[in-house]
Write a structure and sequence with these properties.
- The chain is elongated, with a radius of gyration of 18 Å.
- α3 crosses α5 (112-132) and α4 (76-106) crosses α5.
- The N and C termini lie far apart (57 Å).
- The chain has five helices and no strands.
- It has 138 residues and is mostly helical.
- It is 69% helix and 0% strand.
Length: 138
């Protein structure tokens, strides 16, 4: 069994985990493409939520380490973590549904790598817009 995993690459191992639950509980072997709207939506949303937490967790830990002695600002890591959770729940649900809706309307199947790119891309663009302060110029 170990020989089987050494022959395929790391990315293929990650994409072959079938983390997205299938409609009707069916497993399609090595086919990791997502064809149903709920599968596509959940795949993109899952990656957006995980990547958002990956971006916000180090920021919260840094804030905890630097602001732990401050009287009021010591609670800032809680706010940072809440934004890492609330952001994908509010905005990520809608944008993931929009992406899945476009794929479903086009009659295309989404492979797991596309779900990863769209999910992480949502978090990355949110981070990019936050740092560039584009909204402050409007």
């Amino acid at each position: 069994m170990q020989d089987r995993y050494s022959e395929i690459g790391f990315a293929q191992q990650i994409l072959g985990l079938n983390l997205v639950p299938r409609k009707n509980g069916s497993q399609r072997g090595n086919d990791t493409s997502l064809s149903d709207f709920s599968e596509m939506w959940y795949g993109v949303f899952l990656w957006a939520a995980v990547s958002s937490l990956i971006f916000h967790l180090p920021a919260a830990l840094l804030a905890l380490a630097t602001l732990r002695q401050h009287k009021i600002a010591r609670f800032m890591p809680i706010a940072i973590l809440l934004m890492g959770i609330v952001g994908p729940i509010c905005g990520g649900v809608l944008t993931s549904a929009a992406i899945a809706g476009v794929y479903k309307a086009a009659g295309k199947r989404m492979i797991s790598l596309e779900a990863l790119v769209f999910g992480v891309g949502q978090s990355f663009f949110l981070l990019l817009i936050s740092f560039l302060r584009v909204l402050a110029t409007l």
